[in-house]
Design brief:
alpha/beta; 12 helices; 5 strands; 324 residues; five-stranded parallel β-sheet
């Protein structure tokens, strides 16, 4: 399950107080501003560093990197200084490295950084912030403690994606013994969201690349550079699609989570406050054990989507098992 910011921050603070703070944490979530805000809270809580933006946290013991090249990738020459800074003695002062948009690490940079994760120096804390953890090497993922951040309440983040899915969720579980036709309709709504956005992002990326390539050919004839630009354009479209996909399934997860909160008597902790009447009814109909089982299916879906399994198959099985 995803954490709200205060719960995740308390978890890290308790780990530090007990001397059990890990050396590397993977901070994930669909909201880039939310990831940065949490990173700033971690720096203040654990190291007493209070700054308005992560980039302002650069100091002798704190390093922050983000994609800087034209292709929006993190290159190996950005990683080398961090490695050296973390290795330096600090007299017990916590040394911190923050990597924003960690999914943009180029292969050479990722492999170089992996060495630091495998043999972390003393008194170091590494924060990897990303909205696309599935883009990271499995060897990096396995060496980080994951902290998935919960989305803000629906009143703060409602958008067309959430609206469409909530509309498809409202007819679910109309009465005991329903036949599952609502789950099939919901699956159709999910697939419509995914396929429509995938096609739109591809067309936009192709158009953007053609326009940029046309301008660049006026100043360079480098085939390699244009190829890198094309690959970066495709990678950007894929990252945007994966972010949209996470929004789709985070909405389903949050809705079921609200049903669970309703059964536990905590209607004040809802992701979708405007749907409270529906989630209260469904929560009463299903009960805690059944909701937990359905939540497990959606969490399994998230895990399956990070593997080589067919996306269409994973989505169909996950949605139908969770809502049929």
């Amino acid at each position: 399950m995803a954490f709200d910011e205060q719960t995740a921050l308390s978890y890290l603070a308790r780990a530090q107080e007990a001397g059990r703070l890990g050396h590397a944490y993977l901070i994930t979530g669909s909201d880039a501003d939310g990831r940065e805000a949490f990173g700033l809270s971690v720096l203040e809580k654990l190291a007493g560093i209070r700054v308005p933006q992560l980039r302002a946290a650069e100091s002798e013991h704190t390093a922050v990197i983000r994609p800087e090249s034209l292709s929006r990738r993190i290159k190996i020459d950005q990683i080398r200084p961090i490695e050296r800074r973390l290795q330096n003695a600090s007299g017990g002062i916590l040394k911190i490295a923050v990597i924003e948009e960690a999914d943009r690490l180029m292969p050479q940079a990722a492999n170089a950084f992996l060495k630091t994760l495998e043999e972390p120096p003393a008194d170091c804390l590494i924060l990897l912030l990303t909205g696309a953890p599935e883009q990271l090497l499995e060897t990096i993922l396995s060496r980080c403690i994951r902290i998935p951040l919960r989305a803000l309440p629906i009143g703060d983040t409602v958008g067309p994606v959430e609206q469409a899915l909530l509309a498809a969720l409202r007819p679910q579980f109309p009465k005991p013994g329903h036949n599952g036709s609502g789950a099939i309709a919901l699956l159709g709504a999910v697939n419509s969201q995914l396929s429509g956005v995938r096609d739109t992002l591809k067309k936009e990326a192709d158009a953007k690349f053609k326009a940029e390539a046309k301008e660049l050919r006026k100043t360079t004839d480098s085939h390699d550079f244009l190829k890198q630009l094309e690959q970066a354009s495709k990678a950007g479209a894929q990252a945007a699609y994966l972010g949209h996909r996470r929004t789709v399934f985070t909405t389903l997860l949050g809705w079921l989570g609200d049903c669970l909160s309703q059964t536990a008597g905590h209607p004040e902790h809802l992701s979708f406050a405007t749907e409270s009447a529906t989630t209260a009814r469904v929560g009463q109909l299903l009960g805690t054990e059944d909701i937990l089982r359905r939540l497990t299916h959606i969490e399994d879906l998230f895990s399956n989507l990070e593997t080589n399994v067919s996306e269409n198959l994973a989505v169909e099985v996950g949605v139908l098992e969770a809502f049929a």
